[in-house]
């Protein structure tokens, strides 16, 4: 609640002090190369493998970016700052601990950027992926709760029951570059380093239906992504 109040106060003060331009960008991003997965898992009777592994996978997002562009200077390298909200859809599919998982998520995020001479920007942001459904291929045989089929799917209610937090927070560093068609329209290309903090398994709930339960299980992932979008409202000068 305090964080939301701080964000609203910041936007209000920025709109009051600095002249603002509305920003809109529609596009998407996808990971470049492998995804680095981190796992922390402890079994009831033995230590499960943990650490990190490089694995193949896809982390792709389609989103709308809405925000304000605030002019703070007419000279120098730093001309403007911007605060925006990301809304969209995220798809993740990859291997973690010999289990191939696929997630369909809603995406919510907030990004603050420093804009250099209106053509390049560096930013930091965060948000959350909210899983709508996810599926597992070749599930862990220790977990009876997953069933015996090769592919098992879970809906939103099941995800809420399985995990302590039914969403995956993330933080990211962003680099943007704008290629302008005219004074208001531009092609925005970007590169992002994104760390997905993952979810923590509710072991108390899971162990009720498992032959060999987990004492602890959590995961996270680090990826490098590239993206492109059509941007409107960010002035050239």
Structural commentary:
With 237 residues, this protein is mainly beta. Helix content is 11%, strand content 61%. The protein is built from three helices and eleven strands. It has helices spanning 2-17, 156-162, 203-206, and strands spanning 20-31, 35-43, 51-55, 57-71, 78-96, 99-116, 120-137, 151-154, 168-180, 185-196, 214-232. Strands 1-4-5-6-7-9-10-11 form an eight-stranded antiparallel beta barrel. A hairpin with a 7-residue loop joins β2 and β3. It is elongated. The model is unreliable at 141-149 (pLDDT under 50).
The fraction of residues in strands falls at: over 45%
Note the overall shape.
Answer: elongated
Uncertain segments: 141-149
Q: State the end-to-end distance.
A: 37 Å
Q: How are the strands ordered across the major sheet?
A: 1-4-5-6-7-9-10-11
Radius of gyration: 21 Å
Oligomer class: single chain
Give the beta-strand count: 11
Instruction: Please tally the helical runs, counting DSSP H or I stretches of 4 or more residues.
Output: 3
Q: Fraction of residues in helices? A: 10-25%
The run of helices and strands is: HEEEEEEEEHEEHE
């Amino acid at each position: 609640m305090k964080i939301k109040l701080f964000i609203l106060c910041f936007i209000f003060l920025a709109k009051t002090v600095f002249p603002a331009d509305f920003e809109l960008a529609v596009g998407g991003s996808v990971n470049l190369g492998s995804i680095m997965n981190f796992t922390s898992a402890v079994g009831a009777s033995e230590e499960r493998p943990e650490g990190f592994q490089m694995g193949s996978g896809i982390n792709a997002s389609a989103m709308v970016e809405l925000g304000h562009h605030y002019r703070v200077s007419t000279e120098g390298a730093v001309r403007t700052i911007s605060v925006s909200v990301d809304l969209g859809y995220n798809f993740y599919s990859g291997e973690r601990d010999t289990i191939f998982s696929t997630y369909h998520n809603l995406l919510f995020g907030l990004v603050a950027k420093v804009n250099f001479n209106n053509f390049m920007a560096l930013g930091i942001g965060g948000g959350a992926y909210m899983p709508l459904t996810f599926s597992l291929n070749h599930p862990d045989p220790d977990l009876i709760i997953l069933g015996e089929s090769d592919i098992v799917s879970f809906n939103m209610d099941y995800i809420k029951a399985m995990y302590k937090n039914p969403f995956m927070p993330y933080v990211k560093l962003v680099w943007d570059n704008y290629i302008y068609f005219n004074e208001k329209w531009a092609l925005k290309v970007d590169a992002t380093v994104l760390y997905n903090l993952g979810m923590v398994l509710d072991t108390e709930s899971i162990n009720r239906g498992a032959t060999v339960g987990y004492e602890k299980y959590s995961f996270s992932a680090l990826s490098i992504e590239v993206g492109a979008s059509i941007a409107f409202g960010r002035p050239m000068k």
